[in-house]
Amino acid sequence: MTAKIKCLAIQSVSYGKYRVLLFIGFFLLITCGICCTSLKRLAYEGFWRDSWQHPEQVVHALEIQAGQYIADLGSGSGYFTFRFADAVGPAGKVYAVDVDPGMNKYVEKQTGKSGHQHIEVVQAQYHDPLIPGDGVDLIFTCNTYHHLKDRVTYFTQAQKYLRPGGRVAIIDFNGKGWFFKIFRHFTASEVIKKEMALAGYHLQREFSFLTQQHFLVFSQGKE
Question: Are 60 and 86 in contact (CB under 8 A)?
């Protein structure tokens, strides 16, 4: 191997390491909340999300009715919030619930632009979603479950926010792929089912059309 080829090989390896370090640094900035809102939005929404999230199919599967009240728990940049607002119509209500003030400000701004007056942004606490009003028909959470602490207690207490017959829909990453396995950004479906049973719910529906995520719907009480 000539000196020039050796040099190019070293440069190639160094560049590869640089790219890995850059990616890790970028990810850590996002997860630590240091980045600006735009980068956080990218972290929440991902690349080409519609192609694997199938948001319209998710909303359809939930059989949302006009006039219903929904809490979008961990709403982030409002990816599902505005879709739910369209589904429930002006007679309904959608609470965009998140602990991140920057994301909440972004959703408030977008709400003003879109004219969705039946969206209300809620600054939640880590241990309590603080959903206002007299209850909701659906608590929905997507890619947030694995971030919650003491989930059994969290969802046990969350029952006070549900109307009679209310449901909890949980979508979370299933751990397929190296990224999720390394950074532990997923929850096994068996764990979700066990924890929700301990919190006082039973599994109502399980959908399998999302390749990267579990999609589970729970009702209150035992079967």
Answer: no
Residues in the chain: 223
* In the block, residue with structure tokens 């160094």: 14
172 phi, psi to nearest 5 deg? -145, 155
Going through the chain in order, the beta strands assigned E by DSSP cover 69-73, 93-98, 119-123, 136-142, 162-173, 201-207, 213-220
Q: For 196-219, how does the pLDDT look when each residue is reduced to its tens digit (9 = 90+)?
A: 999 999 999 999 999 999 999 999
**Digit-coded pLDDT (tens) for 109-141:** 999 999 999 999 999 999 999 999 999 999 999
pLDDT digits (tens, 9 = 90+) for 32-80: 544 555 555 555 555 678 888 999 999 999 999 999 999 999 999 999 9
At 3, the amino acid letter reads: A
Residue 71 in contact with residue 95, Cβ under 8 Å? yes
Domain boundaries, the chain: 3-35, 48-220
Other CB atoms closer than 10 Å to residue 13's CB: what's the count?
Answer: 10
pTM of the model: 0.78
The phi-psi region of residue 54 (left if phi > 0; otherwise alpha if psi is between -120 and 50; otherwise beta) is: left
* CATH number, domain 48-220, options 3.50.50.60, 3.40.50.920, 3.40.50.360, 3.40.50.150: 3.40.50.150
Beta strands 162-173 and 201-207 are: unpaired
Instruction: Kindly list the distances between the CA atom of residue 60 and the CA atoms of 54, 72, 166, 171, 207, in Å, as whole numbers in the listed order.
Output: 10, 16, 17, 14, 12
